Amino acid sequence: MKRILFIFIISINLHAGIVNSDDRHEISDSPIEIQDISKSIAALIPKSRVQKLEDGRFKLSGLSYIDDFNFCKDENFVSTQRLIANCSASLVGRNKIATAAHCIDDEQGYSINDYYIVFDYTYNGEAMDELILERNSVYEIKSLLQHTFDFPGDKDVALLELKENVEGRAPLRIAKNRIKEGSEIFMLGFPLGLPMKYHDNGFVTSSTTNLKGQSSFTHNLDTFSVNSGSSIFSSKTNEIIGILVRGTGMNYEMKDEKKCNTWGRGDHHSGEANYIDLLDI
């Protein structure tokens, strides 16, 4: 399987893989239990896109999908939302964040010192040229507790320590057992830098549970650049079973008749996730 790293860097092609229908939903339109879980989902956002205000709050700003990436105005989400996030992550301890290791890349200028960990990056129903967040939504990273990355091997997970405990949010529940092929799953993250989306209608397409030393499973969830680090959950237990790390990838596509871009679509896209037990939580 061709592997594409889902990190957002302007200088490379961005990937947007919709499998058949678009299964991304706003958090506000999701089931109540998903909304509860979403409170503990975080974005890795470059500090250059975050401004601390005099009253202690934070202002987030980013890129336009239409003006900066020539997306068609009628494509889902793009006319009202901005590209702000750079990777996806999850709260797995009072001050611990799980993500993909390739999101932390000193050579590309994305060290732990270049990011804020940001909660509540969601769509509020209005045009979002910028977003104002409260102090308890934004945290600084203290250290890199684990960075397991052997690309082109299949291990790609990281565990971050924050400078302070996260208040008012519960660490997400971690699965004790590995997922089986055919199991129903969902994902929460920031596809191509959008405010958080709920991806459903997914299932495990292959599992390496019975193969010694294997670290990954594949799935058919819609996955995009910047979804890297997203937690994948069991639909049965709402526990994290994996961390999205890569996929086959599809470029967003040009509509010849409109001379603008649309989300990439296809029926052969495949995402890959590392099992959550690779992290030393």
Strand runs, count: 24
Question: Under the CATH scheme, which class?
Answer: Mainly Beta
What assembly state would you assign to the polypeptide chains in this entry?
A: single chain
Strand residue content:
35-45%
H/E series: EEEHEEEEEEEEEEEEEEEEEEEEE
Secondary structural class: mainly beta
Query: Largest beta sheet: what is the strand line-up?
Result: 15-16-17-24-20-19
> What fraction, in percent, of the residue positions are helical?
under 10%
CATH fold type: Thrombin, subunit H
Unreliable stretches: 1-14
Number of helices: 1
Distance between the termini: 29 Å
Q: How many separate domains?
A: 1
The whole-number mean of residue pLDDT values reads: 86
Any idea what the shape is? globular
Q: What gyration radius follows from the Cα positions, in whole Å?
A: 17 Å
CATH architecture term: Beta Barrel
Largest sheet: 6 strands, antiparallel, barrel
Could you explain the architecture of this structure?
By secondary structure, the chain is mainly beta. The chain starts with a strand and ends in a 6-residue tail after the last strand. The chain has a single domain (4-278), classed as Beta Barrel (Thrombin, subunit H). Helix content is 2%, strand content 40%. It has a six-stranded antiparallel beta barrel with strand order 15-16-17-24-20-19. The longest helix has 7 residues, at 32-38.
Write the layout of secondary structure elements.
Layout: E1 4-5, E2 16-19, E3 24-26, H1 32-38, E4 41-46, E5 50-52, E6 58-61, E7 63-64, E8 82-83, E9 87-93, E10 96-99, E11 115-119, E12 130-133, E13 138-149, E14 156-162, E15 184-189, E16 197-207, E17 216-219, E18 223-224, E19 231-234, E20 240-247, E21 253-255, E22 260-262, E23 265-266, E24 271-275
Parallel strand pairs: 2-23
Antiparallel strand pairs: 1-20, 2-18, 3-16, 4-9, 4-11, 5-6, 6-12, 7-8, 9-10, 10-14, 11-13, 13-14, 15-16, 15-19, 16-17, 17-24, 19-20, 20-24, 21-22
